[in-house]
Amino acid sequence: MTNSNTVALVTGASRGIGAAIARALAATGADVAFTYQRDEVAAKAVAAEIEATGRRALPIKADSADAAQIVAAVERTARELGGLDVLVNNAGIFPAKPYEEFTLDEIDRALNIHARAAFVAGQAALGYLGDGGRIISIGSNLSDRALFGGLSLYNLSKSALNGFTKALARELGPRGITVNLVQPGPTDTDMNPADSAHAATQREFNALGRFGAAADVAELVAFLAGPSGRSITGAILTVDGGTNA
Ligand code: NDP
């Protein structure tokens, strides 16, 4: 499978699953732009890894909570890398606490980063995506099964991607653009370290009894982005080690 001569944009890819997706897409031959929020040192390290493979990398500081910054990131990608073929909406946060404690600012921020950012990034990308274009969002297995308390805001904001993905797949199908949602389960990253105090519970739910790696999610995204994924659209694909089984 190859994505030669394609351009991808991955949001939130200075670390974790996003960084693994950026590496996986570069490994299939794509030039990769990616956003980050704070960690410029980590972003530069990911860019250097991509460039070492012979592909072009473009790190862009852009807060997914800010729609204008997202649109600017899409436009800069197309301008500097010569187009856009694959959009991956990955940037995310994990606001977990009792329902009654969430403030309006926290609610807005989670909805903006998870749901609105995907919506406006897709709109901006449509100016560049042609036949064969790809929109892939990263949701969560928790949208299908809330395994513990504290998830009201995370699930409100992530589950929006499920309906959005199906609606957009239907609308963009006639243009040859596929739209899919990948739902990771427990994946060892800074957001959800495999050695945290909450890890043991997650292992108990997991059919494989272990955390996944960021690369497990990234390889599926690369498959969907490549030519072999051409007939998969409107799909919600869960990579959770059987947590929701
Ligand atoms: P990490 O916290 O390890 O990494 C998050 C990445 O997103 C970083 O690159 C961070 O940038 C970036 N980011 C965070 N907020 C913003 C923002 N407002 N604007 C732009 N970039 C931002 O998370 P994961 O890799 O674990 O998670 C990736 C996605 O996978 C998320 O959407 C998450 O909800 C989802 N997911 C993760 C699971 C897990 O177990 N890890 C399980 C299910 C879903 P910076 O370094 O600059 O802060």
From TrEMBL:
**Gene3D superfamilies xref list:** NAD(P)-binding Rossmann-like Domain (3.40.50.720)
Recorded hits in InterPro entries, A to Z, give:
NAD(P)-bd_dom_sf (IPR036291), SDR_fam (IPR002347)
- What keywords are assigned to this protein? Oxidoreductase
| Organism superkingdom | Bacteria
One Gene Ontology molecular-function label:
oxidoreductase activity
Name the protein family.
Belongs to the short-chain dehydrogenases/reductases (SDR) family.
Show the PANTHER family listed in the entry: OXIDOREDUCTASE, SHORT-CHAIN DEHYDROGENASE/REDUCTASE FAMILY (AFU_ORTHOLOGUE AFUA_5G02870), SHORT-CHAIN DEHYDROGENASE_REDUCTASE FAMILY PROTEIN
Q: List the protein's name.
A: NAD(P)-dependent dehydrogenase (Short-subunit alcohol dehydrogenase family)
Give the originating organism: Nocardia alba
The organism's lineage is: Bacteria, Bacillati, Actinomycetota, Actinomycetes, Mycobacteriales
